[in-house]
Amino acid sequence: MEMGDPLDFQGVRTTDLGMSISDGISFGSWSRLGGYVSVVANSSAWWLGDWLVYGQERFSNRYRRCIEESALDYQTLRNYAWVARNVPLSRRRYGLSFQHHAEVASLPSDEQTYWLGRALEQKWSRNTLRAQIRAGRKAERPVPSPLLLRLQVPPEHQEAWRRAAQEEGLDIPDWAARELDRAARTAAVAGTGRAALARLGSGESQG
Hints:
The chain is mainly alpha-helical and 207 residues long. The protein has helices spanning 27-58, 61-68, 74-86, 98-104, 109-122, 126-139, 155-167, 172-206; strands spanning 12-15, 18-21.
């Protein structure tokens, strides 16, 4: 839905605490104003989430200071950014709320597409979608329990990890898990390369 310019709404004044509407506003203007407010309300979480993800990726240390100087709640923004990062724009569905998408944000991409499609088709509420996902999970075969790690980290390393996690807007466990994933992918690529070189060397020796 396209939004009108808020400056077009004559007789309307907005502040951080509310909206004041004059007695002379027409029904058409009042109706358009409602559509504008509805779009802003439904989109603001996405806008904030995408804005924060952009700042995290491109401005590193500086984005955190910008947030701290604003009136925005950091934990709320973190939640918005987590959903925005895990549910890309191409997978988001018109007709479903941000809360619907938050329910599937932790799922693999194919499951996100499936459940969002079902929710849209069946006109499920956020709570119904959550219940359906849980029911679907229970019907699946058991999966291995998550790996739990206990690390003894020297104090000087703890401080370095804490700073690095803060710069990325993450808790230390989330940051450490991400870094371990990166290391695992790097090792896998390196291992593939070594295996290819070994096969090449073997072929040359045979020749």
